[in-house]
Every structure is written in structure tokens, then in C-alpha cells.
Design brief:
The complex is a heterodimer of chains A (83) and B (399).
Chain A: E1 2-6, E2 17-24, E3 27-33, E4 49-58, E5 64-72
Antiparallel strand pairs in A: 1-2, 2-3, 4-5
Chain B: E1 6-13, H1 24-39, E2 48-52, H2 60-68, E3 75-78, H3 84-97, E4 103-111, H4 151-165, H5 171-185, H6 199-203, E5 207-209, E6 212-213, E7 222-231, H7 232-235, H8 240-245, E8 247-256, H9 269-284, E9 293-295, H10 301-310, H11 319-324, H12 341-344, H13 349-364, E10 378-385, E11 389-397
Parallel strand pairs in B: 2-3, 2-4, 9-10
Antiparallel strand pairs in B: 1-7, 1-8, 4-7, 5-6, 8-11, 10-11
Helix pairs in contact in B: 1-2, 3-13, 4-10, 5-10, 9-10
Classes of the chains: A mainly beta (83), B alpha/beta (399).
Chain lengths: 83, 399
């Protein structure tokens, strides 16, 4: 549905990152768009995406936190989600 | 002049910008003294004070009284995000309309010059060891990991959602809206920024959250604004000169989000604004085509475009051609943000919803000097506070 490439964010957050709102069959989901690059002219509105997980960070005990995001859906398959 | 009418008889704003040598009470007192002087009304006649301040100490209104005078009248402290100023004004209007008092004062002040990101600006550095907490056992906040909390990012997505339905809403078009507002502010001596920017300068400025560059974001600054409101019955008792400069409040509307299917993964600033606008036009008995000028909540350039439709200044789906026609420039058919708007005049949060009223009143009174919209008789002022609240006031020149 929508996205933005955030360049200015809180200290400690890696920028840029792509924030997006994804339409999951009528339910809008707030998310990050991953593996899509950071060039807004190369990110297509309403293109299909797929759910992925990605590491958010690792603490001093070596534990990695996992978050969810959506990535461009690059095959010819059918996908319901659209960004 | 029905007894349940409400009128603005005095209004004032400080210069917006950096005021390092003044605190919120200094700025508030300057605006209040200006409004009382403009009204020709003494503080002793004020029967109620509605005071707005978001980011300072609690009970700002009582602190302000210690500077302007402790008259013992009720003080209502209001906060409503970016709609705080409009909410203070509406509170004063309700007070005089209900007969609670004859004369009420609304004041809004903020000191945020150089504040940076107001939401999503705090460091995300957590404990060195992930510790699940809260109802979801999260080890970290959402901001930047599951979407963005930053205001430039949220409103960028509002604009891009419009773009997804109307591809004509490009980065360049959003930048042109900012170009307009910065050009308008060159005529406003009270604006935080009065420099005209070229389209190239705006598009090549620091990118904050695509498509909003720095100059397309509202300017954090210090400022205050205040208004004196009276009932129609009280107005009849005032001098002819006070009556001549009085501005009629034809509509005063505050709306919140209605129930909708689904959730607000992205704040819906459109439905709440449309609902408030529909109520305001009905209350005032005016149509969008009657408006001589509009001050709308351009907290980001992306927001201004969607509000052209939300305020029904153009038909649904036609915001892009409406803007491209030049309609919203100061010499267009529906001048929008001739003050410079939040992007250039500035956005000291709680002052904004009274300062936009000040701008409209100035034109309706024929006192806007170099930036006067000739023959202005009807104006609309709009704000939105995320959460959300939309505040709309429609004002008319005294007959």
C-alpha cells in the first residue's frame, strides 16, 4: 500500500531502512521492507511481497532477536500481499 | 448576533522561531497581552482560561497566571497532540456559548526549537542483554524494526498511500507544495523561516523520510498564540470599533476517529478530517467554494495534498490537478497556507491551532498588509493531532 525510506531515526537505529504498510488480504500490516534496497525509485507500490524473518540484533550473551518483515516476491507465483 | 454566537474580538501570536531567552510563560504572556490589547478587554473581564501546552510542565495555565495575573477564574489545561491549540479555542468557545462566562481566553504555547524528531527520536539502545517484557514479551521496541514511529515517516507513508492510488502524486509534486508554502512565508514577518527555496533546493535538501526532505517537514520552533472569545450577547455591549473588527466563529468542530473495519496500521488522517469538515460546513452553512482562504495542517508536504480532498477543496481523486492548476497559491482560486504553513511559518505544537486562526482573522479584518487576500470574507483553519483529532474552525468577516 505504502512505503517510505527513513533516513533520520532514533540514535541506535541503522538507517536508511524501508518502513511499509502491506495489504494482507484487506488487513493492513505495519512492517519493514527488507531486501528491497533503499532507492525509492526502485521500490514499486502495490507489487507483491512475501513474509520473511530477519535478525534484529544480537545481545552480549550471543542471543539473536528475530523480527518479521516483507521482501519483494520475485517469482511468477501468486501472492496476496501487496506493499 | 444571536446570543449563542461566538466571536473572536482579540487575537495575537508571537513571532515563531527561536526564543532562547524566553520560557513558555514569557511567550504565553506575550501572546495573552497582545490578544487582550487587540480586544480592548482587561484580564479582569476574562471568565475562563483554556491553556494548551504539550511538552512543558503540568498545569501550564496556572503557571501562566502567575505571570499575567491570578484572577481566580477557572483554568482548563488541555492537551490534544497537534490539535491542542484548536482544542483550547474550542473550550473557550464552549464556555461563552454555554453561558459559563461572558469572555473567555484561549492560549497555546510550545518551546521546541531544535527539538529534532518529536516521536521516535529517543535512543533505542536497550539493555546489553535482551529481556522480554510487556504483554508481548518483546525484547526491543517496534520503531525502525516493525515500521516507523517517526512523524516524517508516518506522514511520508500517508502521502505514498495516496500515490499508490494516484501515481501523479510524485516526489516532485510534493516538493512543489513545499515550494509554494516557503514562497508564501516570504510575506509573513512572524514566520520562523522567510526564505524562498527553489524546487531543486527542496528536492536536494537532506532526505528525512522519502519523499519528505527537511524543507518539506514542519519547522520545530518556539511560539505562542492567544485569542479572546465572547458571546454574541457580550459583543452587543462592546464599542462599535470592537464590533467592527470582531470575527464570527461560524463553525467550531473537533472530531476523532470513527469505528472502521480493520486497524490503523497507518493513522487515518483522512476520514477524521473529512468528518470534521462535513460537520463544519453544515454548521457554518457555507460550502468549500465560499472559502477565500484556508490554513490547513501541512505538518509535511505529503499531508497537504491529501487534505485538499479531505477538506473538499477539490473533487475526490483530483488533488494533483487541483494543485497543478495553481489554485492553492496565494493568487489562486483557493489560497492555502498563505502564512507559509507549518513547513515555513513553523509548528510550535500547541500554538499552531490558534496561530492559524490568527492568520485567517488578519485577512478577514483586512489587516494582513503585504500578504492580504483581497476581499476575504470566509476562511477555514484546520489542524490534526495524531491519535487522532481533527479540529476545524470556519470564520467569517463581521457583517
Amino acid at each position: 500500500m505504502s512505503f517510505t525510506v527513513v533516513h533520520v531515526a532514533a540514535p541506535g537505529l541503522e538507517v536508511p531502512y524501508v518502513a511499509a504498510v502491506v495489504d494482507c488480504g484487506g488487513t493492513w500490516v505495519r512492517t519493514n521492507l527488507v531486501d528491497a534496497g533503499f532507492d525509492p525509485t526502485q521500490i514499486e507500490l502495490r507489487a507483491p511481497v512475501r513474509l520473511v524473518t530477519f535478525p534484529v540484533g544480537t545481545d552480549d550473551q550471543g542471543t539473536t532477536a528475530i523480527g518479521f518483515g516483507f521482501a519483494p516476491y520475485k517469482t511468477d507465483g501468486v501472492a496476496n500481499e501487496q506493499r | 448576533m444571536n446570543s449563542d454566537d461566538a466571536w473572536i474580538v482579540g487575537i495575537s501570536m508571537t513571532r515563531f522561531g527561536k526564543h532562547p531567552d524566553k520560557d513558555v510563560c514569557d511567550l504565553g504572556a506575550e501572546a495573552v497581552h497582545g490578544a487582550l490589547s487587540d480586544a480592548g478587554i482587561a484580564l479582569s473581564e476574562i471568565g475562563l482560561i483554556a491553556a494548551g501546552n504539550m511538552l512543558g510542565e503540568h498545569n501550564f495555565g496556572q503557571s501562566l497566571q502567575k505571570q499575567i495575573g491570578q484572577t481566580g477564574v477557572p483554568v482548563i489545561n488541555v492537551t490534544n497532540a497537534c490539535a491542542t491549540g484548536a482544542t483550547a479555542l474550542k473550550t473557550a468557545i464552549m464556555a461563552v456559548k454555554s453561558g459559563e462566562c461572558r469572555v473567555a481566553l484561549a492560549v497555546g504555547v510550545e518551546k521546541i526549537a531544535g527539538a529534532g524528531l518529536l516521536v521516535g527520536g529517543q535512543s533505542v539502545a536497550g539493555p546489553a542483554t535482551w529481556t522480554p517484557s510487556g504483554r508481548h514479551g518483546a525484547v526491543a521496541g517496534l520503531d525502525g524494526r516493525v515500521g516507523t514511529d517517526t512523524m516524517p515517516g508516518v506522514f511520508a507513508q500517508v502521502g505514498m498511500e495516496y500515490t499508490s492510488r494516484h501515481p501523479g502524486a510524485t516526489f516532485e509534486l510534493f516538493a512543489r507544495i513545499s515550494e509554494k508554502n516557503h514562497a508564501h512565508s516570504t510575506l509573513n514577518p512572524l514566520a520562523a523561516y522567510t526564505k524562498r527555496f527553489t524546487l531543486d533546493e527542496i528536492m536536494n535538501d537532506v532526505m528525512v523520510a522519502y519523499p519528505n526532505t527537511r524543507s518539506m517537514c514542519s519547522a520545530n520552533c518556539d511560539g505562542a498564540a492567544a485569542a479572546v472569545v465572547v458571546s454574541g450577547a457580550t459583543l452587543r455591549t462592546l464599542d462599535p470599533d470592537q464590533r467592527r473588527r470582531a470575527v464570527k466563529i461560524s463553525a467550531s468542530v473537533l472530531a476523532t476517529d470513527p469505528w472502521v473495519e480493520g486497524c490503523h496500521a497507518l493513522p487515518d488522517i483522512s476520514t477524521v478530517t473529512r468528518n470534521a469538515a462535513a460537520t463544519a460546513y453544515e454548521q457554518a452553512g457555507v460550502s468549500p467554494s465560499d472559502l477565500d482562504l484556508v490554513e490547513l495542517h501541512d505538518c509535511f508536504a505529503t499531508a497537504e495534498l491529501v487534505h485538499y480532498e479531505n477538506l473538499m477543496l477539490c473533487p475526490p481523486g483530483e488533488a494533483v490537478p487541483f494543485f497543478e492548476s495553481g489554485a492553492t497559491w496565494r493568487d489562486g482560486s483557493t489560497p492555502v497556507n498563505v502564512s507559509g504553513g507549518l513547513e515555513s511559518k513553523g509548528h510550535p505544537i500547541s500554538a499552531t491551532g490558534i496561530a492559524n486562526i490568527w492568520e485567517i482573522c488578519h485577512h478577514l479584518r483586512g489587516e494582513a498588509a503585504d500578504r492580504q487576500i483581497e476581499g476575504a470574507r470566509v476562511g477555514l483553519a484546520h489542524v490534526i493531532g495524531l491519535g487522532s483529532s481533527a479540529g476545524i474552525h470556519i470564520l467569517e468577516k463581521s457583517a
